[in-house]
Predict the 3D structure of the following.
Amino acid sequence: MKEEFTTQARRWYDQDPVLSSAMQTLEESGDDTQIKIALNLIKIITEHNIEDSKYEEVSDIITATEVDLATQKRNRWYDIDETVRTAISMLQNCPEETRHAIAVEMAKMVVEEIKKNEEDEEDDDELDSEDNEE
């Protein structure tokens, strides 16, 4: 029997190509990078939700996120760290338009953080080679 493929995305974030790419890159990055990005995401999402008057206070956003976190399974790549898990859950609960705008910002943050980490590693390598020459 021939297997049929659907156009539906397997994961909620695969419906937006920018978000899907950013999530893939974030998943493949190191723990420190993931946490830094997650903290920035929480800040950005909070600002967007208050700006859009979806919530009146930060505590409302946190309460809405906690309900979702309590009911979800914990076997996804971003469930390992509570900060990352909270940020991704907040992102998932955003309206689609807001989520796309945040995805663009998230993609930029991920790329910038990876570049910064690579530059830091190169600087460390240069210092190590200079120390070995002495």
